User: What shape does this take?
Amino acid sequence: VSSIATLGQMYKDGLLKAAAKENVKRSVNKALLERVSLFRGDIVKLEVDSIVNAANKSLLGGGGVDGAIHAAAGPKLVAECRQLNGCETGQSKITRGYNLPSAHVIHTVGPVYGLPDIETKAAQLSSCYKTSLQLAVENSLKHIAFPCISTGIYGYPIEDATHIALKTVRDFIESEEGSKLERVIFVIWTPRDKGVYETLLPEYFPPA
Ligand code: ADP
Assistant: This one.
């Protein structure tokens, strides 16, 4: 009799434990989901602590989102960038935002996509997201808004790039280091990118 009672108790304990685990998982997912958002529009309009610029190694401005950010920030941005002596692929540097509504710009240099060595490109793209997130935390910034790094002129396929972006952000905001970041915004510029993000976001940030 006693062994049946013990088994019954163990079964109940097991169920309780599983339910508790499920609740913890749900609350973690909910909390994570509340810390990311999609914004469809021009990154230069965002009034946040920091926006990320998909820059080139010179950090002196270029086309695409880089051109838009420099145009909106005004000439003081390029003047500060000149002091930084460029930036390596996969690395990031921070400046003020000047005439932008965003207080800071985090300049990151994405890889130019192409063969050979796709794995290196993937690691560099992930590093762009990670080093930008780290800079935000080091500077006590609460928000960071990312464009789709490398997926324009640099030619990174949007699906692959989005998996890397979402995985890197998720890993970071779940970590102790990233716990102080309140919000990460993925900025979508083209209708094609919107569809990709809407499909993949729930894979990495499932609704509770
Ligand atoms: P890269 O050289 O890293 O590919 P691009 O500027 O060409 O950089 O493109 C990066 C991404 O930024 C692309 O998805 C592009 O559609 C997007 N983009 C371009 N202009 C803007 C803007 N004003 N706001 C937000 N995203 C933008």
In short: Residues 42-44, 54, 64-66, 68, 110, 147-154, 187, 189-190, 193 surround adenosine-5'-diphosphate (CB under 6 Å). The first helix runs from residue 2 to 33.
